């Protein structure tokens, strides 16, 4: 029972932080697309199961995530509570797996007596890693957003696969079970596709041996051989993922620059998790001469080469392995910078949920550093750790409530990201759905003050048309077409009004 207390503590703290968010509603942003208005997930039937495995979401192949929604619907229909509860349970499971993996990856590298970290609670430092994962504010989006089920579900299976792999050195059954579980992770979301590239790094970090004797060349060959089945699965699902992409896949130069900025932004939010947002728009020129982008590229390169030097000269392997974990699992999301109807103008750096799995690398380093410092300054470090856990818990609790409903969410985004016209556009649309047309017009006006957007002008035209202000509606539709000649809805509405008048 005593050994179970730390895990019970993790579950209890996580529940305290997120319990109130179980009462959150769905938000119109993707929850409606993937769940509320998606007939594929409305019930568990053979037809729906087949549809889940033969369609995209509309761009990502996530059949196992769809299947989990179908089970949710079968049990509780479209009541948001059940969907939020499953996300939270998966997050708890992920936190426990993080603690187990931290123990396997760290305990052998740095011996700390049981109870050294928290003498009152008899915690080991690997439990600290799990606690930080459980309550870190950067993870809130993945936990409380029903549409982010794919992130927590794929992470659960990926961590399970890694755990099985770590115990499969002399166990063939565990190895192949790890491969099978990795397939489940890919079926949940293909963003875990980089795991095969991390297998040689993981074995290098652990110092794999042949017959108990270090043998780098033979060990590397064996590691690469063991990575092959995982790589085959990644290749297959990578091809499947390409089939769903409808956005422009070009702009490699821009994606590299924004990707490096995503790294530095998420690192900043990891260490100082305030002003978190569902959207991080980037409105400056995408050029190496733009300070945020140029400095981000230099920072990523500097850290990478510094950690290589650290591993070579100081024989300290964990930081390089952790950095590689962070970068590789973040890499697939770096292709998602272009969104919206006007892709070339709608550029986003990253999303909080993209850091959910990658952050484990950073947390491993945090646990390692705490364990080292604890030997010298036990009281001071214990106090700081307890303070950080408390602050993170409060911040996560507050952030979880910003997802209470659509209006609350985008009101928060507009406050922390003043240049997000999309936030004001969504606020206006929500006001319209509530029948508050004048409030909707005001919100759309704030969106247009930020950017002359065709969709927003079309929305304005719809309100003015409903209010009988035909001349103003025609002018709004014309503005929409001027802003984007591809705005078909505005064209049709404009033609209808002109024919009527």
Number of strands: 2
> Which runs of at least 5 residues are low in confidence (pLDDT < 50)?
110-123, 209-214
How many angstroms separate the termini? 79 Å
| Helicity, as a percent range | 55-70%
The coarse overall form would be globular
Q: Rg to the nearest angstrom?
A: 25 Å
Largest sheet: 2 strands, antiparallel
Broad structural category: mainly alpha
Kindly state the mean pLDDT as a whole number?
88
How are strands sequenced across the largest beta sheet?
Answer: 1-2
Q: Classify the beta-strand content into a percent band.
A: under 5%
Question: What is the H/E string?
Answer: HHHHHHHHHHEEHHHHHHHHHHHH
Counted by DSSP, the helix tally is 22
Quick synopsis:
With 501 residues, the protein is mainly alpha-helical. It has helices at 5-18, 31-36, 46-54, 63-76, 80-106, 125-135, 140-144, 149-166, 172-188, 195-206, 216-244, 252-271, 291-313, 318-330, 359-376, 378-401, 406-416, 421-433, 437-450, 454-466, 470-483, 488-500, and strands at 209-210, 213-214.
């Amino acid at each position: 029972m005593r050994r179970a207390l730390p895990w019970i503590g993790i579950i209890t703290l996580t529940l305290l932080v997120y319990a109130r968010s179980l009462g959150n509603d769905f938000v119109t942003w993707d929850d409606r697309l993937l769940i509320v208005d998606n007939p594929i997930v409305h019930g568990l039937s053979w037809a729906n199961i087949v549809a889940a495995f033969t369609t995209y979401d509309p761009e990502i192949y996530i059949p196992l995530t769809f299947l989990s929604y179908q089970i949710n619907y079968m049990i509780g229909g479209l009541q948001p509570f059940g969907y939020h509860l499953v996300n939270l349970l998966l997050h708890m499971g992920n936190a426990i797996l993080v603690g187990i993996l931290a123990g396997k990856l760290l305990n052998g590298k740095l011996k700390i007596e049981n109870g050294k970290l928290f003498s009152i609670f008899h915690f080991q430092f690997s439990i600290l890693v799990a606690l930080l994962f459980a309550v870190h504010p950067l993870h809130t989006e993945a936990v409380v957003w029903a549409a982010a089920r794919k992130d927590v579900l794929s992470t659960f299976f990926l961590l399970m696969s890694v755990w099985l792999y770590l115990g499969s050195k002399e166990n063939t059954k565990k190895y192949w079970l790890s491969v099978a579980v990795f397939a489940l992770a890919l079926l949940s979301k293909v963003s875990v596709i980089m795991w095969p590239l991390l297998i040689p790094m993981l074995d290098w970090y652990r110092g794999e041996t042949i017959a108990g004797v270090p043998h780098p060349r033979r060990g590397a060959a064996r590691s690469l051989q063991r990575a092959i089945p995982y790589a085959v699965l990644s290749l297959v699902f990578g091809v499947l993922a390409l089939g769903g992409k409808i956005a422009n896949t070009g702009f490699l130069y821009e994606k590299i620059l924004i990707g490096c900025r995503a790294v530095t932004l998420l690192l900043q939010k990891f260490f100082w998790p305030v002003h978190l947002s569902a959207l991080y728009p980037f409105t400056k020129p995408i050029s190496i001469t733009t300070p945020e982008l140029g400095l981000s590229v230099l920072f990523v390169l500097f850290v990478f080469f510094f950690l290589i030097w650290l591993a070579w000269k100081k024989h300290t392997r964990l930081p390089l392995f952790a950095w590689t974990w962070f970068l590789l699992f973040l890499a697939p999301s770096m292709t998602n910078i272009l969104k919206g109807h006007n892709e070339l103008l709608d550029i986003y750096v990253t999303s909080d949920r993209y850091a959910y799995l990658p952050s484990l690398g950073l947390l491993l380093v945090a646990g390692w550093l705490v364990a080292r410092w604890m030997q010298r300054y036990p009281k001071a470090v214990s106090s700081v750790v307890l303070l950080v856990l408390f602050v993170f818990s409060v911040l996560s609790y507050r952030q979880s409530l910003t997802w209470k409903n659509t209006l609350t969410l985008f009101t928060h985004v507009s406050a922390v990201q003043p240049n997000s016209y999309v936030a004001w556009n969504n606020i206006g649309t929500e006001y319209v759905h509530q029948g508050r047309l004048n409030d909707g017009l005001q919100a759309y006006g704030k969106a247009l003050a930020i950017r002359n957007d065709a969709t927003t002008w079309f929305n304005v035209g719809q309100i003015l048309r409903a209010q009988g202000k035909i001349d103003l509606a025609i002018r709004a539709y014309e503005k929409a077409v001027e802003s984007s000649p591809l705005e078909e809805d505005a064209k049709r509405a404009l033609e209808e009004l002109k024919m009527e008048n």
